[in-house]
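Usage example:
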Amino acid sequence: MIRPWEIAALALGLAAAICGATLIGSGSLFLLCEILVIFLLAQMWNLLAGFAGQISLGHQAFVGLGAYTLFLAANETALPLWLVLALVPVAVGLVAIPLGLVMFHLKHAYFAVGMWVVAEILMQLAAKADWLGGTSGLVLRPGGNMLAGEPERVVFAIAAFCAVALMVGLRVFLRTRLGLATLALRENEAAAASAGIDVRGLHLMHFALTAAGTALAGALYYITALYISPNDAFQINWLIAMMFVTVVGGIGTLTGPALGTIILIGAREAMTAWGFTGGQYWIVMGLLAVVVLLLAPRGLWPAIAARRGATQHATTEETEA
Amino acid sequence: MIAGLIETLFQGITLGGLYGMIGVGLALNFGILRVVNLAQGELITIGAFLAVGLVALAPGLSFAAVLVGAFAGCALIGAAMQAAAIERAMAFRDPMVPMLVTFGLAVILRNLLVETMGADLRGLDVGGLGQARIDIAGLSLGVLPLVTLAIALAAFGGLAALIYRTAFGRQVRALSDRPDIAALMGVRVRRVHTLVAALSAGLAAIAGVLLAMRASVSPFSGVAHLLVAFEVVVLGGLGSIRGALGAGMLLGLTQVVSSRFDGNAGLLYVHLVFFAVLVFRAMTGRLS
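Running the assembly step on the lines above writes:
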């Protein structure tokens, strides 16, 4: 089960999250919140694509669903904002189960495109819904009042602890029976099925869990933004960030998305500081993705880990990395 | 009443021809190379911008020359992408790798377009053609949609003739069915792959020119085109050229009919019809 140092990591993460939230300046906190949200989103996409083997081109649907659920529930009820935030992943995770049952009739490319169409449908429905503010969207007013104080401090603390807890939780999970089944699924779906693993059930579990996590990350992001619109919340750029971070960092590894997030945001901050435009930044990122894929198709982290662990336990490095 | 119905049908069919064109390049690429090309939407946009640029540089150019120029330009880009990156990615056994490479290429192409062209909307000025109408058997039909449909049908016909009637087409089909045996029989695999990628990109350019005549395009519209292309390809049966035309027609008719009832829904009903058909086919086991 959970190992002592993993409990220590959790405690350390909690302490760091609280210290950071109280000590770091507000401007840096916004950037850190964005980094953490992108990491959480990418790790969710990675869990589904890299471990469960299901490429979804529509996970931005859950970003939007999570954020809209939060705004609506916070604005229309008297529930405290942070309680609503805790309920968002539960609600979206539950919605994802029937959606998954329908979507799993589709395989591979059909599933990927089908998910994208689901996200587009939700975007257009949100744009048409007057009770969601239509195309102009919603402003976050919990219980009818503007949000007081500095919500980014709480958002940072939650996101930072979630990021640490997710890494520890996934490590622990991959050692359990279900986790081992997931790894088997990653290596070879047909072989896993013939070994008695309930592939469909496992797919559904990962689909619902990643939907819930994606919704939570989306809700966290839009608390710092205070404002939401359909074109923003359901935009494909969420998916592009998730895919880029996972693909460059290392698909099917736990550390890869962390590395990818650092590269994505680090390069953006550096290139902006040097005076490059957003377009030039994305050209460089696109080139990086192509080059990494051609030289190390599983991403940077597996390539680094394989080199580092070549002399010792290379296999455990790769499965647990 | 009847005239209105026929007018709606006509609009749906012409839009359907355009949707079919948007999808056919993707269908060809997937059917032959087994690569899901996420850069197809960008190639469509680039085709439109090439046409706009050609008209701006040489105002006297005939429409046919513009179409050929856009086709050739995009075909070169498609061939270069295939030869430089996608072909190498296809060597990995995992089909996800080439798809993700095209995802990176799409990001590059889109932002190159933004950097060189700016983020403005552009359209092709078709002069009086946009309003021109002709009367056929008592019906007044728009000339521009007719021209669009004619070009789309000609492109589909030409593609079918190329694939099913020529020696090159035979090589392409052989390569699609049994790549290893085709290679043994002396088909030059890489060359055929590059030519198919060029052809597919050229078809995207034609779709882009037709789009730019009908409405304006921006460097960011590639993603929307890619989604329509996907819907056409998936509904038509992955990789089927004839299926792409039929699926385009279905989606085009859906769009025109639904906009009669609900004018500001974008492609909502197209997406809903696509989704419903897809899930229905999957549930009844009629999805390969």
